[in-house]
Write a structure and sequence with these properties.
2 copies of one chain form a homodimer. In chain A, the strands form 2 sheets. Chain A has a 5-stranded antiparallel beta sheet, with no helix packed on it. A 3-stranded antiparallel beta sheet of chain A has the order 5-4-7, with no helix packed on it. The first copy, chain A, is an all-beta fold. Chain A contains no helices and 8 strands.
């Protein structure tokens, strides 16, 4: 049973800005979305994220607290470090830049 | 004979945020700097830039005008497209994110 917030946009918007065999640069626009309860993101490749606008909370499996990301906040998430987007601001655009650095194979946040 | 603006910081500040064999992500802080008169930048690899803060003017060898970059402006500069930073704002930080996508060799804006 999952609470659905009707003030939030239906889905996050993903735009691939650059893609080569070795990297993928994405712009992600969130509006209230979060990783579904109980789910963790576990990625094949390192990811570097920069929060450009808005606010978000990230949780990492090896940490007890939530890291609050504000504009300008950037973070490198090592491959296979389980994490979740705990929350993003409701009713406002939270804009992320996400750089997935691969090893030549397709990888990254396929399941985000 | 080059005019030197004493209000500007002495040099741009480069910080490498990420480096792998296939990419280099840099944060660049400019304060009034520009590419020296008559000089063009000519890079081995594609570069993607995002202006995070401040203002700058870019000139491309195949264009007559100057492109004004404001916060949020991003641009992919293909390898070997000659370009110059015509100006950056004086007395304020202009913050760039620059992603050099290589082919496994060292490359990028070595001479910037």
């Amino acid at each position: 049973m999952e609470i659905k917030n009707l003030f939030a946009a239906v889905a996050e918007v993903f735009e691939v800005l650059l893609e080569t065999p070795n990297l993928r640069l994405e712009r992600i626009v969130s509006d209230g979305q979060a990783t579904p309860p109980g789910k963790w993101l576990d990625q094949e490749n390192d990811e570097w994220v920069l929060l450009l606008r808005g606010n978000a909370g990230l949780r990492f499996a090896d940490e007890s607290g939530i890291r609050v990301m504000r504009p300008g906040a950037s973070l490198r998430i090592p491959a296979h470090l389980r994490h979740r987007v705990e929350w993003t601001e409701h009713g406002a655009k939270t804009i992320w830049l996400a750089l997935h650095s691969g090893d030549g194979e397709k990888g990254g946040a396929k399941d985000r």
